[in-house]
Amino acid sequence: MNRRDALTRTAWLLGGTLSAPTLQAMNRWEQLALSGRTHHRTNSFLTETQREIVARTADLILPRTDTPGAIDAGVPDFINLMLQDCYKKPAQDAFLTGLSDLERKNFLTLTPDQQTALLKQVEAEAQTSSAPTYWLITKELTLLGYFTSEPGIKASFDYQPIPGKFVAIKIKPGQKDFMYGNQV
């Protein structure tokens, strides 16, 4: 099953939470990934500096450990694509405003601890807002991009095919059955 099929089925299960534009963008993302053209697209929504800030933010949210991180999963490019193809202008503007604020504060030149402290401040401010913010959009897209990527799925879930292999068991006299708890 490919990413688009998995997301479509998940959307149906969640009552259509993922919009049609999101699913179309996911399909486009999958096609770009298969063609090897996901990195540094020429029609990028974000500038190079903005892309670096997004990449660093995503890396702080989901860093590489013994499993792949957000950058390994291609999350920065995913965020760029989703912003460009799925988000309406007000959300795009709110995202760019927050991004510009980080750029003015020289986010990329700060130490990792200072970057984390600044993002915690941005998160605290985002919690008081009812409108979309840079932080909320970045967090949402980082998680969506990671957990719908092949590296994210493989690192985070233990895939067990269902129904799997049939293994017969022997039931002992007086043992309760699995389904109903009745004694056999």
Number of strands: 0
Major sheet: size, sense and barrel closure?
Answer: none
Quaternary structure state of the chains depicted: single chain
What is the average of the pLDDT values?
80
Helical content class: 55-70%
Report low-confidence residues grouped into runs of 5 or more: none
H and E string: HHHHHHHH
Count of domain modules = 1
Query: End-to-end distance, in Å?
Result: 40 Å
The backbone outline, from C-alpha atoms, is elongated
Secondary structure category: mainly alpha
Q: Count of helical segments?
A: 8
How much is the radius of gyration in Å? 21 Å
Describe this structure in words.
The protein has 184 residues and is mostly helical. Helices cover 57% and strands 0% of the residues. It contains eight helices and no strands. It has helices at residues 3-13, 20-35, 48-61, 75-85, 89-104, 112-126, 134-147, 150-156.
Blueprint (SSEs and pairs):
Elements (H helix, E strand, L loop, with lengths): L2 H11 L6 H16 L12 H14 L13 H11 L3 H16 L7 H15 L7 H14 L2 H7 L28
Helix pairs in contact: 1-2, 2-4, 3-4, 3-5, 4-7, 5-7
Task: List the keywords.
184 residues; elongated; mainly alpha
Structure described in brief:
This protein has eight helices and no strands. It has helices at 3-13, 20-35, 48-61, 75-85, 89-104, 112-126, 134-147, 150-156. Helix 3 crosses helix 5 and helix 4 packs across helix 7 (134-147).
